[in-house]
Predict the 3D structure of the following.
Amino acid sequence: MTTSIDTSLTPTAPAPAEDVSEANRSVEAASQWTLMWWKFRKDKLAIVGGIVVILYYLVAVFPEFFAPKDPFAFDAQYTYAPPQPLYFILDGRWNPFVYGLRFERDPVSLKKTWTVDYESRIPVGFFVKGEPYTLLGFIPADRHLFGPVNSGDPFYLMGADKTGRDVLSRIIHASRISLTVGLVGVAVSLVLGLIIGGISGLIGGRVDNAIQRMIEIINSIPNIPIMLALAALVPVGTPVLQVYFFITLILAMLSWTGMARVVRGRFLALREDDFILAARLDGVPQMRLVTKHMIPSFLSHIIASITISIPFMILSETGLSFLGVGLRPPVVSWGVMLREAQEIATVVNYPWLLWPVTGAVVIFVLSMNFLGNGLRDAADPYAN
């Protein structure tokens, strides 16, 4: 007679002590950045957000290659053309194409109505030849990531605007302006925050009180009215490049206070730490003490603050341009495109002028927030 043993009730053997100690030693020997990466990669939303943000900025760097058309090229014959759905399979084979468009006029209202021309197929390819451009401003090229095989065929994946310009191409090109405004604005506010916040935290006393009262006054002023007032001071005939830097400077001047307070608080806490006191006793100069010891100790917090500040900058630029006091045509930005579609009749009759731009802004802001939250949590790898 044989007896069976229930293995489910048998206790599992604990992990060998050597493996546990080895894992503990690896954690203890890991650098701060390694611990941050280990914690960051556990946040799946942050990983997805980071990938989306990288793709956005990749498109912003090379918009001429990713856009199927020139953002200023127009065709009056296709004004307010609706989006053309992209099909990938034809007769059971991979053969991307879109159907053509044709319009008719109502005999009573004379309104133009678009219909799909199922007898006309426009083949679509990848890495096709199209309108020539200069990549990065100095490399001549004519290849586009995707587009019609015959460059003269109508191709409007997201529709056309009131002058027959491709909405998708304009959104791609607008990302360069809107996304770089966030980067440049955050860079300026970061420098101001580090300098002013560092002075406030290191010197203290009356200087600290004066700086903190100034920050409180700036924060007490509503951002939107002051941004509108400052942006309205820019003359209408100002060159486009100057308007871009004016708007960026305005956004930076109104957003440096948060970074300054973060830096002040960290400097106040760090200047009494043992390693800072030891560095001072060794005769380390003040500037080297700040740049080599204090700022690197909370660099992760600065990175997290930057990623959270960039969406604010982009939304502010979009809002100013939408209200007509920011960037203006012929500049192509997300705010300028939203302003062109702000009329109710336009949104009702031609919704493709609004929802693609809104979707691009919302997706980027959400992705940046996910990334910022992940970096903020990873900045303190020892927290649960």
